[in-house]
Amino acid sequence: MIRKDYHIHTSHSDDCNIPMEEMILSAIDKGFNEIALTDHVDFDYPDREKAFVVDYDVYTEEFFPLKEKYKNKINILLGVEIGLQPHLTEDIKKLLNSYPFDFAIGSSHTINSMDVYMPKFFEGKSQKEAYTEYFLDVLNCSKMTDCYNVYGHLDYINRYGGFESKILRYQDYSDIIDEILKVIIENGKGLEINTSGFRYGLNQSHPQRDILIRYKELGGEILVAGSDSHRPQDIGCSFDYVHHTLKDIGYRYLASFEKMKPNMYKID
Ligand SMILES: [Zn+2]
Ligand SMILES: [Zn+2]
Q1: Phosphoprotein among the record's keywords (predicted)?
Q2: Which residues make Cβ contacts (< 8 Å) with residue 23, sequence separation at least 6?
């Protein structure tokens, strides 16, 4: 069993209303020994009504007493899911240097000032064109190597766009995806294996198995499992799939983080 979930939201994310302590208690209840709370920070988010910004002075006042309170049951990491956009490097570095973060997921939520969640991003584009634009942007953002430890939900663009087929094949984008993986590997960064795809009915993790295979072929090692939970019951969701898939591909280790540095631990 994988007992570390590295992608959990709390009521400090604008799209989640579950208090931090409730998420922690659910993780303990499910037998996790380590979690990273990774609330959303999306600077320069295009939809102003939903400004994904966290006040970390307020946040840490709640976080550190809870970390202390449950320290004998679970190790809780100060994490963040940071929305990457090429012009935000300095803002993100400043945030990460201002608080004692353990771990940062870098995610592409916004491309050319459009949230990929919004239909507007897909207007006038074929599926191939939209997915290509997405991966080219990820390639740009993957180079913001001071801004993240692992790249979040790498191929999740197939959740959106309303296309008849949601299938996104690695082979169709292999040139760009390989470039992304090489940037990540060469810079000592990693990938998150995000299990939310199963809850979107996609029957896959993000990234999908073929990309995890390619990552290993290219020498990639740093991986964490993340449920992307916004509800207590989703913590650790589909981690059996992750465990099974990793073993099957030949991975023997996952990464844990402390003060933004990875440590590898063996999966049984
Ligand atoms: Zn995300
Ligand atoms: Zn998330």
Answers
A1: no
A2: 8, 9, 10, 35, 37, 229, 232, 235
